[in-house]
Amino acid sequence: MEDGVGESLDFVREKVRDDIASDRFGGRVQTRFPPEPNGYLHIGHAKSIYLNFGIADEFEGTCPLRFDDTNPETEDTAFVDAIIEDIEWLGVEPHGEPRFASDYFGQLYDWAEALIRKGLAYVDDQDAETISEQRGGFGQPGIESPYRNRSVEENLNLFRGMRDGRFYDGSKVLRAKIDMQADNMWLRDPVMYRIRRIPHHRTGSEWIIYPTYDWAHGQSDAIEGTTHSICTLEFADHRPLYDWFLSHLDLPTDKPEQTEFARLNLTHTVMSKRVLRSLVEHGQVSGWDDPQMPTVRGMRRRGYPPAAIRAFVDRVGVAKTNSTVEIELLESFVRTELNETALRRMAVLKPLKVVLTNWPEGEVEWMDVVNNPQDPESGTREVPFTGELWIEQDDFRLDPPPKYYRLTPGREVRLRNAYFVTATDVITDPAGEVVQVNCTYDPATRGGTAPDGRKVKSTMHWVSAAHAGAAQVNLYERLFADSHPGIDGADPLASLNPNAREVCEARLEPALDDVRPGEVVQFERLGYFAADLDDPGVFHRTVGLRDEWANIQKRKQAG
Ligand code: ATP
Ligand code: MG
């Protein structure tokens, strides 16, 4: 798939290009990213962010950040701050200061009065349930409210009364007067304002009436001079209403136009804020920034580089129909990026002691080891090698199964960047578990090759016991066992993987003392691991080394 200007454009970019060519909007391009500050951003939002900011960038337009903060019940300034921080981390820069739909409450109110004056809005005294019942349904007629034909005077008076606190919460709403028989349900006299005596995170108790999403969104776009209002497909049905409102107002700018694209869905992942919140509330994860969360903060703690997220989003492209992308594709972009940038280090996750019985007592040899073979500039480091080492428990078998080529009594293997060693005997505990493997090493094989040309079938990583640091290393499997958690109305939480996280007490080579918070390194043979952002004693497995995506593609081709 090709991306970017000049290559094959997606349909949204094609539209923007055509609008520029036809001088629509005077050649201007302005998009926006409009989050509601009621939760943290997730990878789906990242898609919308890279699309909106990407288009502004590519077509020399602008893209401000606007908080759609019309619902005081669920919104909070803490979310505002977190969203600003996450957007910065994703590497895009909003145009100007952040804006807020709540900054426009005054203008929205005036425009509502203007619609009332035109006979296009009315105050309804019915409760929410009645209004909802009267809406009817597809192929079912709507029922007009008995209050629908109030005079302009009466409506203005009542609407001002709503604003001024003369009525109880929920006792009246303002509705647009459109068409109760419209095929499009959104045109059946939608609610524009509700009375709610709930303090707002920015306007405090200044307002007790709050605009609905539909009344606020398009008008906020227009106030800001948005040209291309890009949103997800579920808003396609709202578009006639978006246009209806704008066409009845005296706008300061050209009428913005809404275009919808398919949301990003990922296998083994949920993006619903409600489900993510319940994971946090039920303690299934440690918080919104748990490395297992598909949130921007979670991915950050997990060690996903923003460049990889962006490359993934570009690759997925912009579609007109919803689909679900395999999470392995995202992981593959993460791995590709980290392969270029991550330093190689040695760590042992499940340590087993190895003693070299012919090693000179107390001797330490410093091995000069390459930091990243993909990046010669990254240089080398000194790694201490001694007669007492840690290796992985999995790298030794007393009774090896067929085709097991790693260490086993009598067999010679290579310790990476060091020597050939041969296992001679083991020490077991009272339960018969091997707790130590005794080996001899061949001093002629320093650096990992034998002068007589003899070969070994496996190479293993190791850490010198006397020099080893300790850390907690968290390994992650899929948080949801189902590829499509929650599909067909199932409870997504029912498919939570109880073994999603495994904790190891690992041993680390000394160079890992210098790792920075959030830095990702490759533990040789094991995968990529991110140093925790806050706790220097914790690492998270970002992604393993095997390219599962390539395997899936091969299987698809074969099948
Ligand atoms: P809610 O489920 O609470 O409505 P939301 O996920 O739609 O939340 P918003 O804060 O309203 O969150 O979204 C901000 C922008 O991000 C919107 O333009 C929305 O369409 C877009 N967006 C949200 N989820 C996705 C997704 N999965 N893929 C692409 N864009 C998304
Ligand atoms: Mg939304």
Walk me through the structure.
It contains 13 helices and 26 strands. The protein has 559 residues and is an alpha/beta fold. It has a seven-stranded mixed β-sheet with strand order 11-24-25-26-22-23-12, covered by helices on one side. A seven-stranded mixed β-sheet has the order 20-17-18-19-13-16-21, with no helix packed on it. Strand 25 and strand 26 form a beta hairpin. It is elongated and about 100 Å long. It starts with 10 loop residues before the first helix and ends with a helix. It binds adenosine-5'-triphosphate and magnesium ion. Adenosine-5'-triphosphate (ATP) binds next to helix 2 and strand 7.
Tell me how many strands there are. 26
Bound molecules: adenosine-5'-triphosphate, magnesium ion
Rg (CA only): 31 Å
Class from secondary-structure proportions: alpha/beta
Helical coverage, percent range? 25-40%
Task: Kindly list the characteristics that best describe this protein.
seven-stranded mixed sheet, 559 residues, single chain, binds magnesium ion, binds adenosine-5'-triphosphate, alpha/beta
